Amino acid sequence: MTKLLQPDLCVIGAGSGGLSVVAAARAFGVSVVLIEKGKMGGDCLNYGCVPSKSLLAAARRAHEMRNATPFGLQSVDPVIDFAAVRRHVRGVIDSIAPIDSEERFRDLGAQVIRAHARFFGKDTLEAGGFTIKARRIVVATGSSPVIPPIPGIDTVEVLTNETIFDVAELPRHLAILGGGPVGVELAQAFRRLGAQVTVLDRGRILKKEDADLADVTLASFRRDGVDLRPNTTLSRVEKHPGGLRLHLASAGKPSTLEASQSTLEASHLLVAAGRRPNVTDLGLEAAGVEFNEQGIKVDNSLRSVSNSLIYAVGDVAGGAQFTHAANYHAGLVLRPILFRAPAKVRPEIIPRVTYTDPEIAAVGATEEEARMLPGKHRVLRWQIADNDRARAEHETEGFIKVIAGTGGKILGVAIVGRNAGELIHIWALAIAQNLSLKDMTSYVAPYPTVGEIGKRVSVSYFEAMTRKPIVRGLLGGLRLFG
Ligand SMILES: Cc1cc2nc3c(=O)[nH]c(=O)nc-3n(C[C@H](O)[C@H](O)[C@H](O)COP(=O)(O)OP(=O)(O)OC[C@H]3O[C@@H](n4cnc5c(N)ncnc54)[C@H](O)[C@@H]3O)c2cc1C
Ligand SMILES: NC(=O)c1ccc[n+]([C@@H]2O[C@H](COP(=O)([O-])OP(=O)(O)OC[C@H]3O[C@@H](n4cnc5c(N)ncnc54)[C@H](O)[C@@H]3O)[C@@H](O)[C@H]2O)c1
């Protein structure tokens, strides 16, 4: 016989989205049941953001050791102890894990059930021998890696983000299928740690970002010796002594338009070809919750379009797939759930960062998207090479690009350069608060910081105005008064 629980709120999934919902709901004393079938902390802590950024941090140190000469220091080829690198990654995960742990959430007063959850009614679930009937339910089940149906792929061992951080030895030659954020971040990390790396993508690498930004980062990849193969499909894969043989079809150079076939031998294949939302095996049909391949169908308050008792947050909600998006969602759904207050997702305020060196960070419209928007817009650029601090650091690659609409409205901002993810904060605030470029000139920027590029690019918006005859005439007129 199952035991009946009747909390105010039930949350499925203890990843970034689910845990944020539970922590905030408990802060208001709401009764909560949290159900998690896997590891507490979900993808971000265990198989995503945290291990990938930790690996990139080690890779960056290795790169800096190899490239110290501009500072008057002798460059050295670092000895990479991959087992120790793995211990560093594990250590970072372990240091964060208590924040996401079952114990912490029990201490906060949530009932935590470690089991697979399944709906069997519009407000009722079953998990781990419990029946849970809740006033509201939040689905935060995340997403999983897509394994494309490529001939032979089921006959070989492939890595995904769920297994790559556990490889015992540094791969000799890591082939990566997919040049999105997962693929490129791991490509740079493994290359700088000493592996040979090839990235295959059927389209443009880093195609979600404007090409001018991606080009700066990809130039750095080429210098590091990453073999980048855009417009390439993997048509077949098979076992080969010492690893795998990949059969590739490449669209060829646009000038020749000649497709070509080739093979590539690799020791490992990482599949980073996108994500699918975790909507199956959840009993969503029994709850009358509509979904498609993007995720649970929700309105702009993240409420299911077909069951008003149910909300979706994070990767399963079909929008941007980031931890900070999941956290933002969590804050939003609590408004209607706890306070019966309206909530509306604003996708344009969610920044995105690819943590390569140089990083790419953006918020709001891309230049490509801005072309589709009504009204005129201007694109402003400021090169990081013109920044004094960047020169001192020998980190002069990259630029900031601001897309300005009428009256200096900030439609979108993108930065490619070292620490671009840190530099985008002020612009994320600007877009969230509907600030204009005039506002962005109204503060004092500390010198010398790379962040000054933001103020410089904002000032440049007004430069044309200083040359207008009417303005110069007015100045001349004022001079007459002494
Ligand atoms: C390699 C990699 C690197 C990334 N790096 C970044 C980054 O740097 N910055 C960033 O913002 N984002 C990053 N992301 C994306 C980020 O990890 C996700 O957007 C985020 O984890 C989504 O949170 P979530 O709560 O929606 O899902 P998750 O964190 O995946 O949590 C979902 C949880 O639900 C559980 N679950 C699923 N089904 C059930 C069920 N039926 N019953 C019970 N439990 C269930 C799962 O076990 C899981 O623990 C990265 C992703 C990857 C793969
Ligand atoms: N820094 C970050 O915030 C960060 C880091 C990693 C992941 N993420 C999130 O995780 C999500 C998933 O990332 P991802 O990189 O796995 O997916 P993605 O969808 O962004 O990129 C997948 C790439 O794989 C290519 N591809 C797909 N199938 C292919 C095939 N059969 N052959 C060749 N190429 C193929 C696609 O063309 C695409 O470029 C992202 O949307 C992002 O939101 C974020």
According to CATH, what is the class of the largest domain? Alpha Beta
Residue share in helices?
Answer: 25-40%
Radius of gyration: 25 Å
Whole-number total of structural domains: 3
Instruction: Name the CATH architecture of the largest domain.
Output: 3-Layer(bba) Sandwich
Q: How many strand segments?
A: 25
Cofactors, ions, other ligands: flavin-adenine dinucleotide, nicotinamide-adenine-dinucleotide
Characterise the protein shown here.
- The structure is a single chain.
- The protein has three domains: 3-144 and 276-347, FAD/NAD(P)-binding domain; 153-274, FAD/NAD(P)-binding domain; 358-463, Enolase-like, domain 1 (2-Layer Sandwich), CATH 3.30.390.30.
- It has helices at 16-27, 42-47, 49-66, 82-96, 102-107, 181-192, 211-224, 323-339, 367-372, 388-392, 420-423, 425-432, 452-460, 463-466, 469-479, and strands at residues 3-5, 9-12, 32-35, 111-113, 118-119, 124-127, 130-133, 136-139, 143-145, 173-177, 196-200, 227-229, 232-240, 243-250, 260-266, 268-271, 275-277, 291-292, 295-296, 310-312, 352-354, 359-364, 378-383, 399-404, 410-417.
- Helix content is 30%, strand content 23%.
- It starts with a strand and ends with a helix.
- It contains 15 helices and 25 strands.
- It binds flavin-adenine dinucleotide and nicotinamide-adenine-dinucleotide (NAD).
- The site of flavin-adenine dinucleotide has 36 residues, from α1, α2, α3 and α8.
